Amino acid sequence: WNEMTSQLGKLTEQLSSHLRKIPFPQPMILDFWSSRLPPFGIDLDEIEGSQPKSPMPDMEDEVRLLYKTHVYFMKQKFQPDERDSEDEEKEEEQVEAIGFYSSIFNSRSDHMIMVEDHSSIENEPRVVLKFPLTYEESMKLLFERESVAANELPLPREDAEKLLSSLWSCHLLETVKT
Known about the structure:
It contains six helices and six strands. It is α+β, with helices and mostly antiparallel strands and 178 residues long. The protein has a single domain, classed as Outer Surface Protein A, domain 3, CATH 3.90.930. The strands form two sheets. The protein has a three-stranded antiparallel beta sheet. A three-stranded antiparallel beta sheet has the order 2-3-4, sandwiched between helices. The model has no long low-confidence stretch (mean pLDDT 82).
């Protein structure tokens, strides 16, 4: 009995050390979002370049994240914006931020279509929003709840307004009538 307990302990230790070595499958996730079909019923021609149907949210509104199964966010490293880099050394540094992805602007007609060079027509998600890491808790709140009062978002007012307007302008957020 003692030997079996010892063996199970060693196995558990080996598995836990092995799991720490497995890298996050970020390229696979990005590939999934770049080729995922948009939600059924979304007319890409209708929404592309148009204003969302619900009014733009303000801090007194209740808001709801749309298409929760067609949006995803994750921490990742991005190249700094050109305007943020002052010299060539900084361009090589990567900045950690939250990438927010959606499949609602993916094309149904181009879904999984390959071109002659055997690459997908689009190999990057069409909707990629980049937010500071401080927005993470607010994003989690939007995902977890059916709707959220905008003034409950754990961000300074200006940041909350930026988050809401960014998601709203991409047809990913709507104002809920209360």
